[in-house]
Amino acid sequence: MVDVETDGPIPGDYSMLSIGAVVVEEGLKKTFYAELKPISDKYNPESLSYSGFTREQAMKFEVPKKVMERFAGWIKDNSKGRPVFISDNNGFDWMFVCWYFWHFLNENPFGHSSQNLGSLYKGMVKDFSKNFKHLRETRHSHNALDDAIGNAEALLKMGEQGLRAE
Fold it and tell me: Domain with 146 in it: what CATH number?
C-alpha cells in the first residue's frame, strides 16, 4: 500500500514531497517513509498545505534519486514475486511514483499497472456509491505513512470480509 503527498497536481512540473508504503500483512510492521526535496520551482500553496510542510522545510529534504533508490531496494527486500502497487487514489499516487521511478531510475519495480483500493471495495460490496474509508483505524492525517497504514488496515478488513488477496 502506497501513499504520497505532493506540492501540486502533476509530476515533473510539481514535486512529490513524501512517500509512505507498507506491506499489507498482519501487524503492518514493514514500512517505508521518506521526504523528497522538490524538483521544481513551481508549487501550489494549497497542495503544499495538505502535506503539513513549508516550502523551506521541503527544500531541506532528501535528494529524490536517493529516495527512489532506497524505495526500490525496500520493495525488492519486502516483496514475494512481483510487487503490486495499491493505493486509495491510484490515479494520483501512481502517477507520481511511476514518473519518479522512470525519471530517476529508468525502471519501475511495480511494472506498468496499479490497483485502486476504493474501486476494489466498490466491487466487493457491489455498490458504486460505497466508500471503504470507515474501515481505517489510523486517522487519515496526510502523513504519507499514516495514510498508507490506514489504507492497509482497510484492505486487511476487506480480507476478513471475504476478499481473497492471493
Answer: 3.30.420.10
- Asked if residue 155 belongs to a domain, the reply is yes
Q: Is 165 a domain residue?
A: no
Active site residues: 142
137: which DSSP letter?
Answer: -
Domain count, the chain: 1
pLDDT digits (tens, 9 = 90+) for 123-159: 999 999 999 999 999 999 999 999 999 999 999 999 9
Residues 6 or more apart whose CB falls under 8 angstroms from that of 116 comprise 86, 87, 88, 89, 90, 91
Residues with Cβ < 8 Å from 87, sequence gap 6 or more?
A: 1, 2, 3, 93, 94, 114, 115, 116, 117, 148, 151
What is the model's pTM?
0.95
pLDDT the model gives residue 166:
66
Give the residue-averaged pLDDT of 62-67: 98
Q: Which residue range forms the structural domain that includes residue 127?
A: 2-160
Q: Is residue 65 part of a domain?
A: yes
